Amino acid sequence: MHAPHELDLTISDVAHGGIFVARHEGRVIFVSDAIPGETVRARVSDDSKSSFWRAETVEVLDASPERQAHVWAAADVSVAPALRPGGAEFGHIKLAHQRDLKTKVLRDSLARFAKIDSDVRVKGVGGQTDGTRWRTRVSLHVDDAGRIGPFAARSHRIIEVNDLPLATAAVERAADKLYGDNADRIDLIQAADGHVRVLNRTLDERGQPVERQASKREVLTERVGEREFRVDADGFWQVHHDAATTLDGAVRRALAGVDVDPNAWHLDLYGGVGLFAATIAELGGTRVTSVESNARATEHAGENLSEWIGARAETARVDRYTRSLLSGASERERARLRDGVVVIDPPRAGAGKNVVSDLATLAPRAIVYVACDPVALARDLGTFAERGYELANIQAFDLFPHSHHLETVALLQQA
Ligand SMILES: C[S@@+](CC[C@H](N)C(=O)[O-])C[C@H]1O[C@@H](n2cnc3c(N)ncnc32)[C@H](O)[C@@H]1O
């Protein structure tokens, strides 16, 4: 059966991924740009699956009191769906209610995938703001015609826009002056010194940026309180200007009741340039190893941690590293690992069953899981629970206002 072009739908719920749930003749429809409680007219954009369809709101018939004019006029529901830029899927919802919806997605994920009943709430960071002007890092795409802009929501079509309200003012100003010669993508990065770097990137056939020549690399200095971190301009650093400080503080709070033993061996897995290894070291755990697959980031982690004689940075895939500890660590090292704490901050897909299971076998005193995806977190917490690690405390932060993303910091300890 083919879907009718447009449907009038009542929105019943929010789903993971910045979309909303409606039902039509028994079928689930995932609808963009809506709010639970609303009735909207939506254009079906994908009816290829029998189990669910996708649709995009084209008109709000009965608006939620939580609706506001979109913070990015270009992404407003009055614009044709194909022409709306992506990245601000919650921008039409009042900020406090965005956080209520993110809280619901997180709690639902914990209940569904980890059987955890939690009263966690997603909190705003950085004082009272309207949730704009937080992105210190923005990637804009360039097409063959030289057009520059973000991709449209759920597509690779470039949308030229007049403003970037989620970006810092300096990044937005720099974006205004761009021209698209010689690049597939342009990355704009504002470091702690306030200056915006403009990096023209070439993408390979998988859409991944080709590594820049050594002579073209710039190393930036980022700050968390008084501490400085060196990081490549094109390397990983948290995107929200308050994120690194917020997460450092959250890891400290998570570990407040845990003895960070100076004689134990601690791990910072998916460590980047050593942000959380420094947190552990400052808490007294100076024998700490940061593990990261990107060799340049590991080099910087080595420098960033150089004041602690027992700190190391290793270039390795975490799954291989934890497996090598299981097969190669001495009895004495295994005992030190059991007394240690582990921070893990994996990419969106989560750590996965193998890493979780190997970590549980290593049996550290405490594990702090920093997560940017609530479903991946909940799946991994489910596996940890099977292996005897229970959730001891959990915090959640709105580090990505007006998008659907959120960040969670969870402490796990043996039951
Ligand atoms: C979310 S970032 C966290 C970085 C760091 N904790 C921070 O907050 O600055 C995830 C990091 O994991 C690295 N990474 C991705 N997959 C990995 C793997 N399988 N093994 C080791 N590192 C990996 C990425 O290069 C990236 O630096």
TrEMBL record:
Report domain TRAM positions: 1-59
Q: What InterPro entries does this protein's entry cite?
A: MeTrfase_TrmA_CS, NA-bd_OB-fold, SAM-dependent_MTases_sf, TRAM_dom, U5_MeTrfase_fam
Source organism superkingdom: Bacteria
Keyword Iron-sulfur included in the entry's annotation: no
Keyword match Methyltransferase? yes
- Keywords annotated in UniProt: Methyltransferase, S-adenosyl-L-methionine, Transferase
Catalytic center at which residues? Answer: C372
- Binding positions for S-adenosyl-L-methionine? Q238, Y270, E292, D345
**Single GO MF descriptor:** rRNA (uridine-C5-)-methyltransferase activity
GO BP annotation list: rRNA base methylation
**Stated family:** Belongs to the class I-like SAM-binding methyltransferase superfamily. RNA M5U methyltransferase family.
Q: In its UniProt entry, what is this protein called?
A: Class I SAM-dependent RNA methyltransferase
Organism whose genome encodes this protein? Microbacterium mitrae
